[in-house]
């Protein structure tokens, strides 16, 4: 596993750029934050995030393409999960950094942090 002392390669840069791209859209970010807690069905994610099922399908396809989520069958349903167990705590740490930098970002009724 790379550490801070590891020489940064173009592969490392590309991997972080994929994560940055995934986080650049509020719906994709909401999906990733929701999946930190538990696997979810696309319809449940769409309802929770207030988007259409078509938008959810497109965003989940993007996150699959970025290698951040996997789809697994659960009977007749599909559940989405984060691909790596390190991703959930990393997203939590990123959220903590945002809250440290801008503690007022999630104050009031217009909170977009989850």
TrEMBL record:
Gene3D superfamilies: Winged helix-like DNA-binding domain superfamily/Winged helix DNA-binding domain. It comes from Labedella phragmitis. It holds the Pfam family HTH_5. This is ArsR family transcriptional regulator. The lineage of its organism: Bacteria, Bacillati, Actinomycetota, Actinomycetes, Micrococcales. SUPFAM superfamilies: Winged helix' DNA-binding domain. One of its GO terms (molecular function) is DNA binding. It comes from the Bacteria. InterPro entries: ArsR-like_HTH, HTH_ArsR_DNA-bd_dom, HTH_Metal-responsive_Reg, WH-like_DNA-bd_sf, WH_DNA-bd_sf. Residues 8-102 form the HTH arsR-type domain. PROSITE patterns: HTH_ARSR_2 (PS50987). One of its GO terms (biological process) is response to lead ion.
